[in-house]
Amino acid sequence: MIESPLSVPPAAPPRRGAQGTAVLPVSPRAGRLLVLVGAFVCAACGLVYELELVALASYLTGDSVTQASLVLSVMVFAMGVGSLLAKRLRCRAAAAFGAVEAALALVGGCSAMVLYGGFVWGGSTRLLLVTFSLAIGVLIGAEVPLLMTLIQRVRRQDADGAVADLFAADYVGALVGGLAFPFLLLPLLGQLTGALITGAVNAVAGGALVLWLFRHDLSPRARRALLAANLAVLVLLGTLAAGVGGFERAARHTMYGADVRVALRTDVQEIVLTGGGRDDLGLYLDGRPRAGGHGDRRYDEALVHPAMRGPHARVLVLGGGDGLAAREVLRHSGVRQVDVAELDSGVVELARTDPALSALNGHAFRDHRVRVLTGDAFRLLRGTRAPVYDVIVSDLPDPGITESAKLYSQEFYGLAARALAPGGRIVVHAGPTSRPKAYWTVDAGLRAAGLRTAAYRVPGGSAATDRGFLLAARDRPELGLDDRPARRGLTPAALATGARAAERTRVPGLAPSTLVHPRYAERP
User: Fold this and answer.
1) The whole model's pTM is what?
2) For labelling, which of 166, 177, 303, 416 has a CA lying 20 to 30 Å from the CA of 152?
3) Which residues are noted in the entry as spermidine-binding (predicted)?
């Protein structure tokens, strides 16, 4: 005797209509349409689960290519396994399909919350990611064979026609789910609530299809068991959805401490602000520390001031929405214009309005010389045709993050070089020198774009504050500092020490990273 995944009691022999078809509460034509609608909804939910796993894993680890490859490959393999397993369940297709959908709603709906909790409290997501990809893939793979049996139970038709109809509904549902996730679920509900709501829709669609349309294929015990299972899944998903806010607050306190003041999700990233004073302020973007305290003052000084030795009337800051790099630029006399190109306007608004953060950046965005350009840095440089800037400060996320790889490519530096005025310089935050392969690949990209470079790191930085930089110009740049303004521990001698420390990590013979061949795969 074969049991369904939820141990539903075996169904009584189904009531047969003409030529072995099911007895339905509607006409065969309407029944067939309802099965295709069910396939459509289930396919949409399945793709949302898939995208949810990829998006959340990419957000937590920052490597979207690896996460997408892992989820897709494991899930496609598991779908094949699920299809094979479903062959043994076709004799009780209605009960098996109801059990599969209830299990899929539970596993898929809870996947994002469990994955996020595993990252916060367990410190790792890889095993959970593979486990959920396998489980969801097996359940999705079992859907189509069972639906094929059900649609043939509605009305006998040639196999080719049934396959075409079913796969058409499946593919259109996948399209709708794929579009709904980034444009509806993610911005309106967020990752956790979006997955839970999707699970609820999945449970309702699968349960209604079996418990109403194919109810005569089930014994009374099977109907009661499936109804109880679906109600239990819906109650659990609803309870978790109601508690998402508290769950996220507890997770943030675990990750950032108990003094979280601001937590918001923009179209680009999650922004968290902790603390309230200059010394204990912390700014986190997608979980990564971005600003706060005296240590970051040293980072911004080391990033900006070596590049300001020379003409610096017009300065472009790429990234730097927190205003800290602009603060250091404005400390130099002779600065007439500072353009801050930031992808996320929410960061700039917070840096402009939050009392602690605006005090930390010296109220840089109130200065009439500062202009904010909201948009992608690559696109902005591509639209800059003339040599405009004396200094370009690239204050962007580490190149090891997949989404940032194009901003550390040879093509990007070629566009930056085109925007430099004669005698201009570009300084790049190139990631930690403890990852020498990635660090010197940035150097190779700058050189491939026709620039000459000088390497250095934050002087005296520990392993926890290891920040590497590259100063580049058409002529060989000389590392040095102007006599003004005063800086926190950044002296010509300290800068020379940082240059020697960076040079000792040199990895020769590296090829530059390009748009079609990103080379920042090294892990810390």
Assistant:
1) 0.81
2) 177
3) 322
